[in-house]
């Protein structure tokens, strides 16, 4: 690809004894949603006031305690949403709203007018500090950039006194915008000056937000930046180190995770990663990644489908089918080997009673985020023999014996190839029903009765009945050690022979008084091949008899078709 020579490689951080690679994330960070500000400004059609209120309430239900609600000095619309939240009493006492403002005098003053009547507010101010913006946009040396930040901090601290007297709990946040493109020593210098001007202390910490405003380096380099910053700034104990990763290189989540390992305390991001260009860091993915490692993320995504629907409705953005945890297909397996492993994992969980989630290819239990089991295994031309059996069991309650999986799997595979696309679960059941439950052939059971006699703990079952075979009706009679054996012998007595009984299994497909039995009968046909029949009935003696009839009919018809 031509043109790559004009791009300068990112300069690495001079840190040789980095500690973050050996750290783990063992607790949730402080979360701050910026959906209403950073996320909203990236929408083709920004949210209306009503839509912002829906989003705000959803964020509270999820568990966010810090929510950036807008840039009230930037436009009348942003001002109005803030006033609507405050005047309408929509902000719980334990939730802090965050407002953004540039480090400019008239904008700061308007921001303080906008927050009147609020209980808990973070004043988040910023100015750009990057090497490129200093050269191209501001045409200032670093000393001038530091003075802009310092003057903004002084004014904010001054105006805070009256707001605090009026009962507002004020906290401060400063962002050296384009931190990731700023020389680290310069980033430290401007932040140290801001802490000094704001009177930061261990009891009155200031949030220092260190954004990768444009993601320009690999995730490990961002972690190096955060570790270098934390280790070299004065009075680290006076600050809460916050992350604001963007996703220009597609590694926003990884950058946030590594930066948390490097010493950060807080993360700003959006639901599903909406934001300028390729977006902000995806808080849903970050939080659920922690969840899969046994860490409580302190956010509730147990109803992920409803959260996704809310997000799509108010933003008019779409969550991709492969979006981690929330996409329609993320818990779905089409591959035969994957389906087989999932099927065995679910069975292992049921049989072992393990308290841990141990199912291959499923990093979490889909039910933990409110997802159903029906779409986990979906059937197309790539699916294997166990996939159709999993659908039959989990969706319809039919637990096919393992020996039957290849036979039914071949039937489903043939239907997939013929259709040329995925089969829905109802279509799979229709195939099962037509091939087994409704299968018609030359043998018809007209009526029957059983008589059972006991003799010293042994029993003998006798069957009497009438059948139609190849259009002719005849009487059958036979005995055996059970109903299936007796019926099988009765058929032999009228010349329906050459079949050998191989296996039999049975289970209920519903609960309570109306429970129905399903029986799976495996026979060896005269051609030497094994074949299955299935019978269902509320009568547990009739279900296996119907299964024998089904197996014989299938063997005769299928053998004739092959000839």
Question: Would you kindly provide a written description of the structure presented here, covering whatever features stand out?
Answer:
This protein starts with 29 loop residues before the first strand and ends with a helix. The chain has three domains: 32-315, TIM Barrel (Alpha-Beta Barrel), CATH 3.20.20.70; 336-437, Helix Hairpins, CATH 1.10.287.1400; 443-562, Alpha-isopropylmalate synthase LeuA, regulatory domain (Double Stranded RNA Binding Domain), CATH 3.30.160.270. It is elongated and about 105 Å long. The strands form three sheets. Strands 1-2-3-4-5-6-7-8 form an eight-stranded parallel beta barrel, surrounded by seven helices. The chain is of the alpha/beta class. The relative contact order is 0.07. The protein contains 17 helices and 14 strands. The longest helix is centred in the N-terminal third of the chain and has 24 residues, at 142-165. The model has no long low-confidence stretch (mean pLDDT 90).
Give a concise summary.
The chain has 563 residues and is of the alpha/beta class.
Task: Kindly list the characteristics that best describe this protein.
single chain; three-stranded antiparallel sheet; Double Stranded RNA Binding Domain; elongated; 14 strands; eight-stranded parallel barrel; alpha/beta; TIM Barrel; 20% strand; 3 domains; 40% helix; 17 helices; Helix Hairpins; 563 residues
């Amino acid at each position: 690809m031509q043109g790559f020579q004009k791009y300068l490689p990112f300069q690495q951080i001079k840190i040789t004894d980095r500690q973050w690679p050996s750290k783990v994330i063992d607790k949730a960070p402080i979360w701050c949603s910026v959906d209403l500000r950073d996320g909203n400004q990236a929408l083709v059609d920004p949210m209306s006031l009503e839509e912002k209120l829906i989003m705000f309430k959803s964020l509270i239900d999820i568990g966010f305690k810090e929510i950036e609600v807008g840039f009230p000095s930037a436009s009348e619309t942003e001002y109005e949403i803030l006033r609507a939240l405050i005047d309408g009493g929509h902000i719980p006492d334990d939730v802090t709203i965050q407002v953004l403002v540039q480090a400019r005098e008239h904008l700061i003053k308007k921001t303080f007018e906008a927050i009147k009547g609020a209980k808990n507010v973070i004043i988040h101010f910023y100015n750009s500090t990057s090497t490129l913006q200093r050269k191209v946009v501001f045409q200032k040396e670093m000393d001038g950039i530091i003075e802009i930040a310092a003057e903004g901090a002084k004014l904010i601290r001054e105006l805070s006194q009256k707001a605090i007297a009026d009962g507002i709990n004020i906290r401060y946040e400063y962002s050296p915008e384009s931190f990731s493109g700023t020389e680290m020593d310069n980033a430290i210098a401007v932040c140290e000056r801001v802490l000094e001007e704001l009177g930061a202390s261990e009891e009155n910490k200031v949030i220092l937000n260190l954004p990768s405003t444009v993601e320009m380096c690999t995730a490990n380099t961002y972690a190096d930046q955060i570790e270098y910053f934390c280790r070299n700034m004065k009075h680290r104990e006076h600050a809460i180190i916050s992350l604001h990763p963007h996703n220009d290189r597609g590694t926003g989540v990884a950058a946030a995770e590594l930066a948390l390992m490097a010493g950060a305390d807080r993360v700003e991001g959006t639901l599903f990663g909406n934001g300028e260009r390729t977006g902000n860091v995806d808080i849903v993915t970050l939080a659920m990644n922690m969840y899969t490692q046994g860490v409580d993320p302190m956010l509730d995504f147990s109803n992920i489908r409803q959260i996704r629907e809310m997000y799509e409705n108010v933003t008019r953005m779409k969550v991709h089918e492969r979006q981690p945890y929330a996409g329609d297909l993320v818990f779905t397996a089409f591959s035969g080997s994957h389906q087989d492993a999932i099927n065995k994992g679910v069975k292992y969980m049921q049989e072992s009673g393990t308290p841990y989630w141990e199912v291959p290819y499923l990093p979490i239990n889909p039910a933990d985020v409110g997802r159903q089991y029906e779409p986990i295994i979906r059937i197309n031309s790539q699916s294997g023999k166990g996939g159709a059996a999993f659908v039959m069991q989990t969706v319809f309650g039919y637990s096919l014996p393992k020996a039957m999986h290849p036979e039914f799997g071949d039937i489903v595979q043939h239907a997939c190839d013929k259709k040329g696309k995925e089969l829905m679960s109802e279509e799979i059941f229709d195939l099962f029903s037509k091939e087994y439950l409704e299968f018609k052939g030359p043998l018809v059971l007209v009526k029957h009765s059983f008589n059972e006699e006991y003799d010293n703990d042994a029993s003998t079952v006798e069957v009497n009945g009438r059948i139609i075979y190849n259009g002719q009706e005849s009487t059958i009679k036979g005995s055996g050690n059970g109903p299936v054996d007796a019926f099988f012998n009765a058929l032999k007595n009228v010349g329906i022979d050459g079949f050998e009984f191989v296996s039999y299994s049975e289970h209920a497909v519903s609960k309570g008084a109306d429970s129905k039995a399903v029986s799976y009968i495996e026979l060896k046909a005269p051609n030497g091949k094994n074949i299955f029949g299935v019978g269902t009935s509320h009568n547990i003696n009739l279900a296996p008899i119907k299964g024998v009839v089904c197996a014989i009919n299938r063997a005769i018809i299928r053998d004739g078709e092959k000839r």
